[in-house]
Amino acid sequence: MATIEHDLPSQVAPQKPKLTIPLKIAYGLGQAGQNGGFDAAVAFIFFYYTAVLGLSGTLVGAALAVGLAADAAVDPVIGSWSDNLKSKYGRRLPLMALSVPLIAISLGLLFSPPTGLGQIALFVWLAVTSVAVRSFISLFNVPYIALGAELTTDYAERTSVVVYRAFTGICSGVVVTAIGYSIFFADGGLQKPEGYPSFGWTIALVIFVCLTVCCLGIRTYAASLPQPAQVSGLMIRRLPGEVKEIFSNRSFRVLFLSAVIIYVAAGVNASLNSHAFVYVWQIKSESIQFISYAFLAGILLGVVSAPVLQRNIEKKFVVIFGFLLLIANWLVLQGSMLVGIYLPLGDAALLPMQFNSGVAGIGFGFIAVAYPSMMADAADEHEHLFGRRREGLYFAGLGFANKAATGLGVMVAGVALDLIQFPNMAGHAASVVLPAEIQSRLVWIWGPVPSVIALISLVILGFYGITRARHAQIATALGRDTDNRDAV
What we know:
Helix content is 73%, strand content 0%. It contains 18 helices and no strands. It has helices at residues 21-28, 32-41, 43-52, 57-84, 93-110, 119-150, 157-184, 195-224, 235-247, 250-271, 273-279, 285-310, 315-338, 350-386, 391-419, 436-446, 448-461, 468-477. The longest helix has 37 residues, at 350-386.
């Protein structure tokens, strides 16, 4: 075990304000960048560029995979920068504030490619703008999530902070989905290219407002947190050693690997949602939003239920239960269709898909609450083992697993579309019926394939070892009060 020499603030930190409900809500609004800007808004991108603009699925997947490479380079740098930055506003807030206008501009451009671009030019536009969106969201999200771990060191209250963050993220996802399907993509508009640029810039404005309010609302609290000790040497020289250090912690390795794999599975499935809803189950564009609402309602139920479950079982088992619900969502209706038992079409498919998505949402809600809380516990273990706080790098790892692995899932989905010979649907009506063989292939890569990938992640997660008792030992060794100070 490394000798423990805890970081000390270079100056006495100001009195920390009470962790109130309004402060938690203000902090939670920052999740709009991920849930509203990246997850909800960018979910339209795969369908837009393949089925509407006619870009090859392989090229779309490759362009979005470039973002994976960007995240691999950017997230650790941002994490280290955030861990070691010193300013009168704290070490997290300056990077968050810098990213806000950049996220809004890049998100709007992602949905606004110039008309008349050929395949290669459209590929370049998608690659450049997707890299920009990913990088700027990382610039906000890495210090933002690390700040959440610093708001409290209590094992249970950390879950409370994550619940507030997840809840406001869900609300932002509902707003973005409602704006898209009810205003810009109503009456078959999902197949019409003219609605996408206006949608992109509208969502960019919504995200800008949410993130600005977040930064303003938490500025006093962020400034009150201890400043890092002065670190010598250039970041480019320190970073490899810091990354090696966090991977030396077994708990981090398990969480990182399991997160990468489950998000690959989720990326494959989510990328093909619109394709499957429109071209297999023949659901109207304007009705798809109600499936999304069921998913978001499920997430909300999972988010508020996760803390209750964690009072009786360990966080790891909450996540495993979430995995099992996701796998069920990816197998039941899909399997019924593939074996010829059940295939509702049109309006008849809406309710079964809503129920299916609601179940998946509950599972995702469990994961969304427990995973970050487990990562914060692992960061405490890291301080105990190595004598230095690394929340920035720890949550950079979780952020990379989310965005980059989802990007890999999108790439897999794009290549798979070409392999199953999915036709170029640009200019065609949604009423076009695909051959049964292509429908079956599409359903295979939409459901059963992600399920197999998720099972691998579930097995890996079984090796995570920080329990409630283990965390109490760590807190005692670090000299921390383990009482639940401000939990709601």
